[in-house]
Amino acid sequence: DTAVSQTPKYLVTQMGNDKSIKCEQNLGHDTMYWYKQDSKKFLKIMFSYNNKELIINETVPNRFSPKSPDKAHLNLHINSLELGDSAVYFCASSQEITAEQYFGPGTRLTVT
Amino acid sequence: AQKVTQAQTEISVVEKEDVTLDCVYETRDTTYYLFWYKQPPSGELVFLIRRNSFDEQNEISGRYSWNFQKSTSSFNFTITASQVVDSAVYFCALPGGTGGFKTIFGAGTRLFVKA
Fold first, then answer.
1. What's the pLDDT score for residue A98?
2. How many angstroms away from the CA of B110 is the closest CA of chain A?
3. What is the DSSP string of A23-78?
């Protein structure tokens, strides 16, 4: 049973398009996150959600809009994609903020 | 503001060597947690350990050990008798920010273990 799943695993699209990445966790966790990992492996928090409420929006352009329809899901929609959005996006969840995070397999987004 | 520094960008060792990965952190919180995660070449991120700031005891798990020293704000990770399967990027992390919801990751240390 996959604990944190993301779809799709790979996403290749052109500049200006809109795309979504879906994330689901079956761990019963209250807290979910989106991270961006660039080509140098630097991992940066984008959003944190707790009980479906947005807690952290880490100066992410408003082209990125997360949505949490319920505690088990945190989706990421990206409008007007730019070349600089190319990265691996990781979803994660944790039981509480001091607990370890469980990561999804990542979505490699390539914008051409 | 929280900060995590992993000064070693890449380390290369030969199998069976011991290797230590350094992590230095900055925080104004009196209570905090520190984490290590592993990212093998396959790309997934795997939790290794969590340490509470009140607990300065060293921890050992098989070939892995962690040395936490509050006095030097360091949380170093040692792999004893390294193996090729240990080749990965290792991240040190520190939750902080608003209510602890903003986890800061270090830049990572890429470890190459050669056979």
1. 86
2. 9
3. EEE-S--SEEEEEEE-TT--EEEEEEEETTEEEEE-S--TTEEEEEEETTEEEEEE
